[in-house]
Amino acid sequence: MIRREFLVRALSVAAASLFGRHALAQDAAHGMHDMSGMQGMSDMPGMPGMAQGRTPGAAALAAPDALPSGAPLAALRTLVNESREAGVFRATLVAQPAQHTLMPGHPTTFWQYGQAGDHPDTAAMQGQVVGPLIDVREGDTVEIRFVNRLPQASTIHWHGLPVPPDQDGNPSDPVAPGASRIYRFTLPPGSAGTYWYHPHPHMMSAEQVFRGLAGPIVVRAAVDPLAGWPERHLFFSDLKLASDGTIAPNDMMDWMNGREGQFVLVNGARRPLIVMAADERWRVWNACNARYLRLSLGKGRTFAQVGTDGGLLQQAREGLTELLLAPGERAELIVRSVGGTREPEGQPQSGESAQPDRSATSAQSARAILSAEVYDRRKMAMSHGSLPPDSAHPLADVQFEPRTPNAPGRAVAIPTTLREISPLGAPVSQKSVVFSERMDMAAMHRPGASRNGMPAGMTFMINGASFDPRRITLTSRRGEVERWSIENRTDMDHPFHLHGTQFQILEREQEGVVTPEPYLAWRDTVNVQPGETVRIATMQNQAGERMFHCHILEHEDLGMMGMLKVI
Ligand code: C2O
Ligand code: CU
Ligand code: CU
Fold first, then answer.
1. Which UniProt keywords apply (predicted)?
2. Of 231-245, 352-366, 447-461, which gets the smallest average pLDDT?
3. Pair 244, 192: CB distance under 8 Å
4. Tens digits of residue pLDDT in 242-259
């Protein structure tokens, strides 16, 4: 099922030999690990570091263990509310360069969100690269002054939140370097959930995020059935560092497949230690540019999923051993402090009733590794075919230290109903979104053929066209339920994301087999596999322009984005 369009036309001699050599190297080495055939590319515009350190002059990457690990997981810092009025959250976010020393002896200049009064030299900015947590409630009016101290234009996009289109940091609303603006919106009832914010400037989102600009948002409900559970936040981001501590630029493979660095950070640190004294509610964010996180706590260790992007599920999904989190996605989990082995489910504990047999639990190791398991998102190679699957990547160590190790009979059951989710209802119109891609090898290798440091010749499209800020891709009427079908006609996974609202997955179709989504959930991001069609129900409530795109940010910047006009 090779549907990639490779327009190998009028190859130059250099490109032809490059293509040929690489095809050979791939047969021999089965993948991109042998980059010897790629050396000619280091001369290409916009492809620094192409040969991953093997080309003279290109920056070598730091070793995968060059960052220390094992420090206790840091809590996220919180954005301070400057308002004294009830129901108003007012704060300042400053985007600016800030230096952190993650690799001993080699400071890195990140781009980072800080608070009013933060200065790059102050301790506050030294603490964490992750932007401060915006912790707000349904009904709050949020007013955030954004100060852009970056050398580029930027915006803040409130990923997943139903904010007015002119407050949503669209690429058409840039804030110039040195300028500022206020974003203002009110969080409606029912919007409780786990969101995030990140820049969304035209063709520069990938770079601004990989340099460090992204932060978490939690919107709390007035009534939250899980309010009593200790909450833990794991904000996953990706980092690709050169051996001198600088943030490596994107190479051609990063543009083609989405950038994955050698490090995954959790709350800004590599492989931290999580010590669990009680059962916990985890909120997890995949803020990586392109890395898929197939989360697992290891063999036999289960957890429950209780929420998606847009808040709690109706019923917990118990007994999971893994959960795939595509770039941009979030989830809420319940992780048990004792073993996490399969237990009788859904039985509310009454009084002092003893838990059944705990012997299986005591035999369990008190440690686990939270890891991203092997996942094959069908990354492209430089010739026909795919790269091998991503290998497993440890994210954090977890140490279970329940406070009452010998009498754990009080495990609190997850409430049977977390909240009511009603189906959006019968759609009144249909929309079709088709992902496609085209690789023009000749254009890729033509000297001088790059724009904004992006390689030419790689085209990622929606409905047959790359993003054009002057063109409206689709039009919707506000208040109308629509059925969107999102079809992936490429050979690689792409996470679809829609701004301004949440949606419900109806069904997924693969090779003619239709699988209805087994549970109701609110999402704003959904992975679409090669050859798959995902059908969703969604509704926009405010008139204006909304974006929808692949959340592999390199693909988004390369044009896999469309504009929805809501009338
Ligand atoms: Cu998280 Cu349009 O983005
Ligand atoms: Cu978004
Ligand atoms: Cu994509």
1. Metal-binding, Oxidoreductase, Signal
2. 352-366
3. no
4. 999 999 999 989 999 999
Residues forming beta bridges with residue 486, ordered by sequence position: 433, 534
Whether 393 lines ligand 1, by a CB cut-off of 6 Å, is no
pLDDT in tens, 304-343: 999 999 999 999 999 999 999 999 999 999 999 875 444 4
More confident residue, 338 or 223: 223
Both tokens of residue 479? Answer: 């208040």
Please check the confidence at residue 353 and state whether its pLDDT lies above 90. Answer: no
Mean pLDDT confidence for 283-300: 96
Going by C-alpha positions, the residue among 358, 351, 566, 360 that lies closest to residue 477 is 566
Beta carbons within 8 Å of 512's beta carbon, 6+ residues apart? none
Between 401 and 133, the more confident residue is 133
Task: State in Å: Cα 197 to ligand 1 middle.
Answer: 8
Q: Is 330 in the pocket of ligand 1 (CB under 6 A)?
A: no
Pick from 305, 329, 325: nearest CA to 315: 305
Contact 340, 366 (CB under 8 A): no
> What residues form DSSP beta bridges with 78?
133
Considering only 108-122, 341-355, 413-427, which range has the smallest mean pLDDT?
341-355
159 lines ligand 1 (CB under 6 A): yes
281 close to ligand 1 (CB < 6 Angstrom)? no
The answer to whether 424 and 539 have CB atoms below 8 angstroms apart is yes
Distance from C-alpha of 276 to C-alpha of 265, rounded to nearest angstrom:
19
Cβ atoms of 307 and 325 within 8 Å: the answer is no
The dihedral formed by the CA atoms of 113, 232, 389 and 527, expressed in degrees to the nearest 10: -80
Determine the Cα–Cα distance for residues 214 and 383; give it in Å rounded to an integer. Answer: 33
Q: Is the pLDDT of residue 7 over 70?
A: no
Q: What's the residue count for the chain? A: 567
Distance from Cα 564 to the centre of ligand 3, integer Å: 18
- Tokens 């099922």 -> residue: 1
CA distance 420 to 478: 23
Let me know the angle formed at the C-alpha of 226 by 223 and 227, rounded to the nearest 5 degrees: 65
